[in-house]
Design goal:
The protein has a single domain, classed as tm_1862 like domain (pyruvate-formate lyase- activating enzyme, Alpha-Beta Horseshoe). Helix content is 40%, strand content 19%. The chain contains 13 helices and 14 strands. Helix 6 links the parallel strand 7 and strand 8. The chain binds S-adenosylmethionine and iron/sulfur cluster. The site of iron/sulfur cluster has 11 residues, from loops. The site of iron/sulfur cluster (SF4) has 11 residues, from loops.
């Protein structure tokens, strides 16, 4: 067997598990902010950062992604503290560093954006979901389209030019025409990047309960396909390449952080419920806030950890790589598994 090579991660994912409210479709590891021990959570996160880099010192960090939850529910002083500790524990001196933060429209005033900018964030991904106020309300979002326009305008004013938005399709009561209107509004903003997700009805969500009772009027599969084809055509006409199933970008503005996952490369994963892939081991952190804080007192707050065999890693490499338009590359494969591995793998498969 050839050596299975995994160098020190160049990517860092950090999870902020708080949201102003819980959207009707969402099963992400996120909790309603009110009454949560945010300062204790940040303390625990800092301990996890210190223990993580002590265990496996980072190479040059190329991407940081702060996701959620809603990272931008942190108040400006909490945000400043958070970003200072990221920079204290991880080397962020790469001039091409991509530092993304997820944000909800309406949670980014100018003060907070200024702190984010000063703390090194240079890419923001806004969860817009739709430009239809009625639909936004129906899916449990607390923002409206005015919040979207104001948030993007503020971000641009503060000098953020690498902006992305998430939109959802296949929503209850949504038609292809509704989706076309949302997409047209989105394209008028001329952003660098768009993510388009088809609604997945996840267990333990309000939508799942409604679905089981037959009270969720979802578009048919044919309508959903029609929406997707329309989305792809319109984005391509506007000069965006579909570089991954759900992701479209102007050339050079593909999410480098998410591409790390699709190339099956290693990454640190920190925060409650975060996943990481470091030194051939995949881990999932403790999910609940209080449990995470308690676990971080005594060491790394890991819930599950497994060593990935070379054969499994090769399968993973193929599976996630095929999400990318560029597909899987021999040279990437060789970098991870050694020079002769491709021949051996193709002979086996
Ligand atoms: C962690 S959230 C983004 C940040 C922020 N919390 C927000 O919602 O605006 C990531 C994205 O996943 C998508 N998403 C979440 N739940 C989904 C579901 N059940 N089906 C499809 N897409 C979903 C949404 O587009 C959402 O913006
Ligand atoms: S979709 Fe985003 S804002 Fe809504 S609950 Fe999930 S993580 Fe929070």
């Amino acid at each position: 067997m050839s050596p299975f090579i995994q160098s020190a991660p160049k990517a860092v994912y950090i999870h902020i598990p708080f949201c102003t409210n819980k959207c009707h479709y969402c099963d992400f590891n996120s909790y309603v902010l009110k009454g949560q021990p945010v300062a204790d959570y940040l303390d625990a996160l800092e301990r996890e950062m210190a223990l993580t880099v002590a265990a496996v010192p980072p190479g040059r960090i190329e991407t940081v992604f702060v996701g959620g939850g809603t990272p931008t529910v942190l108040l400006p002083d909490q945000m400043e503290r958070f970003l200072t500790m990221v920079a204290r524990h991880f080397p962020l001196d790469d001039p091409n560093l991509e530092f993304t933060m997820e944000a909800n429209p309406g949670t980014t005033d100018e003060d907070k954006l200024a702190v984010m900018k000063a703390g090194g964030v240079n890419r923001i991904s806004f969860g817009v979901q739709s430009f239809d106020n009625g639909l936004l309300h129906k899916i449990g979002r607390i923002h409206n389209t005015d919040d979207v326009y104001r948030s993007l305008e503020n971000a641009r004013k503060l000098g953020f030019d690498n902006l992305s938005i998430d939109l959802m399709f296949g929503l209850p009561g949504q038609t292809t025409e509704h989706m076309r209107q949302s997409l047209d509004a989105a394209l008028k903003l001329e952003l660098r990047h768009y993510s388009l997700y088809s609604l997945k009805v996840e267990e333990n969500t309000l939508f799942h309960t409604l679905y089981q009772k037959g009270q969720l009027p979802l578009p048919s599969e044919e309508e959903e396909v029609e929406m997707f084809l329309m989305i792809r055509e319109r984005l391509q006409q506007a000069g965006y390449e579909q570089y991954e199933i759900s992701n479209f970008a102007k050339p050079g503005y593909e999410s480098r952080h998410n591409t790390t996952y699709w190339r099956n490369e290693s990454y640190y994963g920190l925060g409650a419920g975060a996943h990481g892939y470091v030194s051939r081991q995949r881990h999932v952190n403790v999910k609940g806030i209080a449990d995470y804080i308690a676990a971080a007192q005594g060491g790394l707050p890991i819930m599950e950890k497994e060593t990935v065999s070379e054969a499994e890693a090769m399968e993973d490499f193929m599976m996630v790589g095929l999400r990318l338009l560029r597909g899987v590359r021999r040279d990437d494969f060789a970098r991870q598994f050694g020079g002769a591995a491709w021949m051996k793998y193709s002979a086996r498969s």
